[in-house]
Amino acid sequence: MLDKLNKTQTEYFKLLKSIRADLDVEDIGYHLDKIRNFWFKKRRLIEIASQYVFNKSDTYFYTATSRFNVESTDNNIFFVIGKYQIYDDPLLSYLEVIERKDTVLHFDTYLRKLKNKVIESIDDLLILLEKEIPNFYIVPLRFLNSCINENKIDVMPFIKNFFVEEIDFARLNEYDDVSSIVITEHISQVMFFEDDNPALSIKERIKQYRREFSDILPSNMNDIQLLQFVLFGYFSQAIDIFQTSSYFNVFPFFSSVVTFLNYNFLLMYIAYNSQDESMKEALKKSRFIFTIWCEYRKKEASLSIEAIKSQALLIDFYRKIGMIYREIDALGTQESIAKEISACLDFLVE
Q1: Cα angle vertex 132, ends 128, 136, to 5°?
Q2: How far is CA 279 from CA 119, 219, 245, 251, 271, in A?
Q3: How confident is the model at residue 347, as a pLDDT?
Q4: C-alpha to C-alpha distance for 255 and 312, rounded to whole angstroms
Q5: Which of 109, 271, 276, 345 is the most buried (most CB within 10 A)?
Q6: How far apart (Å, rounded) are the C-alpha atoms in residues 40 and 339?
Q7: Where on the phi/psi map is residue 177: left (φ > 0), alpha (ψ -120 to 50), or beta?
Q8: Is the whole-model pTM more than 0.70?
Q9: Higher pLDDT, 56 or 3
Q10: Closest CA to 112 of 215, 252, 9, 15
Q11: What is the phi/psi pair of residue 88, to 5°?
Q12: Membrane spanning segments where (predicted)?
């Protein structure tokens, strides 16, 4: 099975290399469609791998990114978490947006930026694939989940919890005052962007969000439409990540505080309403892994992929971090857990 996975990576490298050599930015959808066809044919292989390889060991997938910036070492801790690591290739997410360009008005600026992101992402993927990193795979897991898994969870009932019951979502353009239709105690639990302050009024937060993302937002939305657009985007992504994680037997790795907090918030809501023990385990695991990322960032280490994997093997990092996870309930507080993780990371970065 691992031989087949490795062969798939070699084939994908050759495909990306040929696309990059002949890339026409104005016809980028055509090139991305080649990638979609490639992975659609590989979907059964990835399903089998999830059952017989990923399901039998700790496997993590790095998701919710626009690209894997290979020039930065900030997130290289990912390569030593778990036995296998998967990068959730975002290229096909770009294709979905490009294909919807006629249904999303005033999105031209974003589409132009998106096409440049595609080029940057392909370049990053080529560098990663050329390294032939052991037990590391580049697979568009969320795309494959959308192809295979028919049990989609509708996120709109959850989003409606942020608004008063009387609101008509088909007539959002007719509402003027966003403050009068949101439930403040609920919306204050959602992060809109990294420097967002949930204590501010919803009007001020939306104003700041517009300023932060002015170059990529549709220009024809009022505050209420934009709020629904943002909430639907974040929580559709969160439920997609959760379903992908469950279906392929892998755990998500995040390098964004906003994405993690919103994912965590959604899972807490589902866990509370379903009393599902597996959901509680998913919550515990995601918080633990995110704490590792946070503590690693504090170290300001600049270890290359090769260096961090070599050092992790030398100090038996995988076993040590696993022992901390098994003791997580006994450690009790988040502060105690972070302290143990930090001490373990000291051996890794010394």
Answers
A1: 75
A2: 37, 38, 11, 12, 6
A3: 96
A4: 20
A5: 345
A6: 44
A7: beta
A8: yes
A9: 3
A10: 215
A11: -75, 90
A12: 250-272
Mean pLDDT of 218-238: 91
In angstroms, the CA 145 to CA 301 distance is: 34
| 219 DSSP assignment | T
Spell out the domain ranges in the chain. Answer: 1-148
Radius of gyration of the chain from its Cα atoms, rounded to whole angstroms: 21
CA distance 346 to 58: 22
Tokens of 143: 């795309």
How far apart are alpha carbons 32 and 34 in whole angstroms?
A: 5
SS3 of residue 65 by DSSP:
coil
Question: Each residue of 70-98: b (16+ CB within 10 Å) or e?
Answer: eeebebbbbbbbbebbbbbbbbbbbbeeb
The dihedrals phi and psi of 84, each to the nearest 5 degrees, come to -125, 145
- pLDDT digits 0-9 by tens, 44-84: 999 999 999 998 789 999 999 989 999 999 999 999 999 99
Answer whether 9's CB lies under 8 Å from 89's CB: no
- Give the C-alpha separation, 197 to 247, whole Å: 34
Length of the chain: 350
Q: Are 308 and 76 in contact (CB under 8 A)?
A: yes
CB of 91 within 8 A of CB of 140? yes
Q: What is the mean pLDDT of residues 204-218?
A: 90
For the cut 80, the answer to whether the pLDDT of residue 24 exceeds it is: no
Q: Which helix or strand (DSSP H or E) is residue 60 part of?
A: strand 59-62
* pLDDT of amino acid 100: 67
Instruction: Give the 3-state secondary structure of residue 84.
Output: strand
**pLDDT of 166:** 83
pLDDT at 15 over 70: yes
The owner of tokens 């657009």 is 229
DSSP, collapsed to helix, strand or coil, labels residue 252 as: strand
Please report, rounded to a whole number, the percentage of residues in the chain having pLDDT higher than 70. Answer: 97
Average pLDDT over residues 321-342: 95
